[in-house]
Design the sequence.
């Protein structure tokens, strides 16, 4: 069994995106994302890949899932199914699912660990949502609360492990 983790920032109402963009741009969260995923495999759908400002994420093995076999993206390995993406995962290391919504949904049942940034506000007009988590199925192993200010809302870093 591959070691599959999800990393995601979610609003209180589980919203994660709108118009193929992240809902929140929290500098410290982006730094945390980079620190956690650097040196590992990241798996994403092609819409998420297109939303990245500079293409493939440096110092990571990038796997992009597409349903179009003609798709090839610089600096990425392509997978044309969830199963093929799993085969390409590193068997000895943590592999990170980084979006988008459909990819999270499909990987959620086989995920061992969640790295959630829970932003303490709801977003009414989002168009992409994370699957609702049943917390009785997960063990909270780490939590860090971050106060908000005029530039960003308060949020919490949660690391959960499947029971």
Sequence:
């Amino acid at each position: 069994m591959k070691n599959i983790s999800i990393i995601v920032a979610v609003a209180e109402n589980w919203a994660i995106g709108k118009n193929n963009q992240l809902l929140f741009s929290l500098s410290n969260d982006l730094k945390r994302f980079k620190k956690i995923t650097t040196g590992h495999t990241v798996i994403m759908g092609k819409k998420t890949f297109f939303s990245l400002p500079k293409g493939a994420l440096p110092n990571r093995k990038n796997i992009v899932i597409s349903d179009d076999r003609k798709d090839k993206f610089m600096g990425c390995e392509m997978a044309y199914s969830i199963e093929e993406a799993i085969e390409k995962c590193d068997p000895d290391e943590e592999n990170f699912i980084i979006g988008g919504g459909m990819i999270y949904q499909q990987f959620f049942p086989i995920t061992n660990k969640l790295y959630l940034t829970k932003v303490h506000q709801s977003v009414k007009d989002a168009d992409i949502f994370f699957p609702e988590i049943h917390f009785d199925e997960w063990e909270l192993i780490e939590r860090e609360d971050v106060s908000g200010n005029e530039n960003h809302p308060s949020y919490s870093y949660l690391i959960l492990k499947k029971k």
Residues 27-37 form the longest helix (11 residues). Residues 24 and 44 are 18 Å apart (CA to CA). The chain has one domain: 3-162.
